[in-house]
Design brief:
Blueprint (H helix, E strand, L loop, with lengths): L2 H11 L2 H14 L2 H6 L33 H15 L9 E3 L2 H16 L11 E5 L16 H4 L7 H8 L3 E6 L11 E2 L3 E2 L16 H6 L1
Parallel strand pairs: 2-3
Antiparallel strand pairs: 1-3, 4-5
Helix pairs in contact: 4-5
Amino acid sequence: MTGILIKIFTLFLECPIIGTLLLYILKGNNLIHMLITNADLEESPLYVPLHHFKDIEEKEVESLDSSLSPPEKVAERFITAVDESGKPPIQMGFFIHYNGDDILRQANESTMRYQKGKPISVLDGNLVAIKDEIDCLPYPTTGGTKWLHNERHCTDDACCVKHLRLCGAVLFGKTNMHELGSGTRRINPHYRVLSLNWTVGMVGIPAGTVEDALIT
């Protein structure tokens, strides 16, 4: 469901009476009543793991203030990696929008602060991607759609993004997402599918979120 259809659907869903009835029907069609509302659990859910586990030994990493890994060099490598991941055979749609020149400008400013010994905070120079449902200049906010940014223009950073900028974080761009967050499979017909790293090229096994795809 996209475009005008989702607009009409949202209009009905937000109506006080029709919306309540429609929501009840949708829950029934998706087995929410049977599996959740009226579910008869034989035993209580397990919220805490009972098995013993061992923490993974921490590995030392180079600090951003090191001459071997300044923010500018880290940003350049990441841009290259993202560019390559969008080409065959991987073709991953991690980002809906990102601007290499803007990223390198931020990273260069951070590198200069480190060279002067005056980083703003521990976040200074760290790459941070913003989900495309949060305003972040100079990018439009699409919400994973092809029409939202035309109806609602991004004119300023969201509050959380402003604070990240004040801390010196390098804002990398807007990450891919399901249209208006209306699903969990990350199959976006406009901005490509996100696969887990061990299922690249396999149809129907995408990552649940951009974070899943990036981390794994």
